[in-house]
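Ticket #4471: structure export looks truncated?
Reporter: QA, pipeline team
Priority: medium

Steps to reproduce: submit the single chain below to the structure queue and open the exported record.
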Amino acid sequence: MQLSRRGDYGLRLVLELALTPPGEFVPAATIAEKQDIPLAFLGKIINQLVVAGLVRTQRGARGGVTLTRSPADISLLDVVEALEGPLLLNTCLRAPGTCQRDIFCPIYTAWGQAQAALVHSLRSITFDTLADQARQLAATQERRDNRGRRSRRPPAATTATRV
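Actual output as written to the record:
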């Protein structure tokens, strides 16, 4: 499974919304700029997430996009499946009996276990956790940037006077 650009951008969109105060609408242009997403493509992604019930939009001067529920209640799996459809590592897992070999195929069993582990992992990662991590990473980067600016300052000029 490889996440499409649509899925990647959708995850960035939801993370950006998770970083804003609850109920606050963020203009799509702001999200597009901050997350480096083409605005026209972002509009299509927003529409899919509206249909999935993960975000809502509001028009007007105070309009934009906001989450429909708490970031703690939205998982990576929710967003990926809203944009990509159900996770499916192999077509043989689509439904029981789809593959005539599933009863005696150890690969079918392995695919099933791998898919179950992936679904469990993506379901357990929520956007409140990701937003907290993003804030910590931003604070760490800011401290590094500040240290770098201080260490790059030229030493204070001194003048020696001889008498």
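Status: closed, not a bug. The export was complete when the record was re-opened. Leaving a note from the reviewer for reference: The helical segments are 5-18, 28-35, 39-51, 76-84, 106-124, 127-151.
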